[in-house]
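debug: dumping io for the single-chain case to check the tokenizer round-trip. Nothing else runs in this session.
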Amino acid sequence: MGAATEPTTSGLAEPKAPAGKKERSPQRRRRTKTAELSTARYFLIKASGSDGLQLGQEVASENEALTASFRASGSYAVVTEWKANVDVSTGAPVIKKEGVQHEKK
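debug: decoded output
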């Protein structure tokens, strides 16, 4: 008299993914590094009587610029420098921008 026994479950349902949504993998996507990230330079603004903008001391990072400008009750500027290059590999000339990198202080 071998009765077939079914496995018992504890009454807790297994979590299911919501319908229509794909499960995400635990790995994050890596962003590609662009030249834009490394070309930023940070300058304190010199106080001047004219309406023009005068760049003062260059600092190494945005955090340093933020702190120094707060201490001086002033402001800071973020400058990015670009160079134009021509790409003729496709047969038609295409002007592309390339970030200019400077040594970090």
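debug: round-trip ok. Residues 62-71 form the longest helix (10 residues).
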